[in-house]
Amino acid sequence: MINEIISNYKILKQIGSGGMGTVYLAQHTTLERYAAVKVLNPEYSNNKFFKDRFLNEATTLAKLNHPNIVILYDFIEYEGKLLIIMEYAEGQTLDLIINQNTFKDKKYVVKVISQVLDGLSYAHKQNVIHRDIKPSNIIIGENNISKILDFGIAKLTNTNLNLTKTGTRMGSVCYMSPEQILGKEVDLRSDIYSVGITLYELMTGNNPYNNDTLSDYEIQTRIINAPLIHNNDDIPENMRHVVNKATAKLPEERYSSCEEFNNELVSTEYFNPLKTNSTVETSDFGRKTKLISNIQNIERADNKQKENNKYLIPIFLGIAVILFGIAIFYLTSLDNDIDTGSKKNVTKTEAEIKKQVENVPEKKIINKTNSQSEAEKEEIKSTVNNLLNSWENMDVNSFFSNLTNDYKYESVEGVRRNYSERRNKAYDIFSKNKFINISTSDMTIDVADNYAEVRYRQKYNSTTVNESTIKKLYLRKEDNRWKVYKELSGFN
After folding, report:
1. Is residue 280 part of a domain?
2. Measuring CA to CA, which residue among 52, 194, 69, 86 is closest to residue 126?
3. Total structural domains within the chain
4. What angle do CA 249, 255, 260 make, to 5 degrees?
5. Summary count for the chain: helices (H), strands (E)
6. How far apart are CA 211 and CA 191, in angstroms?
7. Which pLDDT tens digit goes with each residue over 466-477?
8. Active site (annotated) includes residue 216
C-alpha cells in the first residue's frame, strides 16, 4: 500500500501492526496533515465478528472528542479493505518508556496517569468503556501529553451492540480485571482496574502479573485470587493506597469514577515523593514528620545524657546564660538600629504566603520588596493572556497547560470545581458556543516570592453567555514557569 493515495491520503510508511490490522503513516495531499491509517488485515475482512469489531472502533472514536484520546478523521471501505483514518499522535507508547526506564519522577507519573483518567472520564460519560487499557495503548507525545489509543474492543453501554458472547474474555490478560477474566459483565470500574495496574507498572517498571514462567491460566488465577504485591522502596505509602483501591478484586471496592481516582492520585503528589536526586523535602507533611522524629531522637538523647553526665548540667546552664546574654545584647542593638532608621526588610516564607493565599484568597498579596522586576510581572501577564486567548480560541490543551494539577475554581454563585471537573466543563461549554469574545480591564498584579495575585475585570460574550465580572487568579512558580492554582470569579 506504500505510496497509494486513498481518499486524498497518501500512504507513506508502515508504523505498526497488531493482531487485527496494520497501521500506516499517511499525509493528506491538500491539507498536508499527517494521519494514522489503520487497515483491517485481509484475512479478517470477510469475518463478520472481526469486521464488526473493527467497525465498532470507528463508531466509538466518532463519538469521542478529547485531547487525551486520538481523534477519528474518517472511515473508508476501499477495494474490499476497511480503513480507519485517525489523528497521528507522534511520540512513544508508555510500554517503551517503562522498558527504557526514561520517566524521571513521581510528578511525571501523576501527570501521565491523570491525563489518562481525564480521557477515560470523558469516554465513560459518553457511555464508552475501553476494556483494553494498558501501556502499549497509551502514547506520550509532545509536552508529555497522554493519548489513549485503540478502542477496538470498547463497549458502548447505551446500545445493544455486543461483540462478545457470555464467558468470552477480551483484552490483554495481565491488565484484565477479575470480572473480565471470569467473563462477567464489565463497567467503567474495569477500566479503573486496568489504569491501576498500569500505574503500578509505571512506578515499579514491572507488571505484577507478567511472568514468563507462568501460563495464562496461572496469571488469571493470580489476578482473581492473589493480592497485589508492592515493593515498598518503589511505591510511597499513600500511593500504595491509591493502587490498592484501584485494583481491588471486587468492583464495588474500587473508585466509583475516574474523577474520584484522579483527585486522590493528584493529592499524593504533595506527600511522600518517589526517590529522586533532590534532597529537598517537598511537603509540609514530610517536614513535620521529620521534625517530630528529630525531636523524639533529641529527647531520648537528652534523657540518656542526663543519666550518664549529671555533673555536666551546671556547665551547660552556665553556657546557656552566657549565650542568652549575647542574644539579648544583639537584639537590643538591632532595636537601636531600627530606631535610628536602619530598616531591615522581612519577607515571608513561601509556606506562609501560600497559606495566606489559600485561606484568605480575598486579601491581596502585598509586595514586600522592590526587588521584583517588571520582567517578572510581564511573565505573569503573559500567562494570564495565554490563558484568556486559549479560552477564546477554544484551545483546551493550551488553556490547561497554564493550570496546576491542584487547580481550584470558585464563583460567587457557589460553583466549585477542581482541575478535572473544570476540564470536563470546558468541553461542554465549547460544544455549545460558536464564538467567544473576551476583553479585560483594570488588571493589577501583586507578587511575593514565588506567589502572585492577579485581579482584573473581564467581559465575556458568546452565543450563550454575556457577562462582566471580577476575576482573581492566584499563581505560583513551578519549574520556572508561572501557573494558576486558584481562580475566583465575581468576588470583590
Report:
1. no
2. 69
3. 4
4. 165
5. 14, 17
6. 22
7. 788 999 999 999
8. no
- Active-site position among 118, 132, 191, 449: 132
405 shares its domain with 444: yes
308 and 443, same domain (yes or no): no
Q: What pLDDT digit, counting tens, does each position of 249-294 carry? A: 999 999 999 999 999 999 876 544 443 333 223 333 333 333 334 4
Which ranges of 362-464 does DSSP label H, i.e. alpha helix?
374-392, 396-400, 419-432
| pLDDT of amino acid 99 | 87
CA distance 475 to 457: 17
Tell me if 276 is assigned to some domain: no
CB 174 within 8 A of CB 114: no
Q: How far apart are CA 155 and CA 146, in angstroms?
A: 21
Residues 6+ apart with CB under 8 A from 167: 183
* Phi, psi dihedrals of residue 153, rounded to the nearest 5°: -115, 20
Same domain, yes or no, for 329 and 229?
no
Lookup: cell for 351: 509556606
Inside any domain, residue 231: yes
Q: Is the pLDDT of residue 423 over 90?
A: no
* CATH code, domain with 410: 3.10.450.50
Q: Please give the Cα distance from 28 to 10 (Å, whole number).
A: 6
pLDDT band at 46 (very low <50, low <70, confident <90, very high): confident
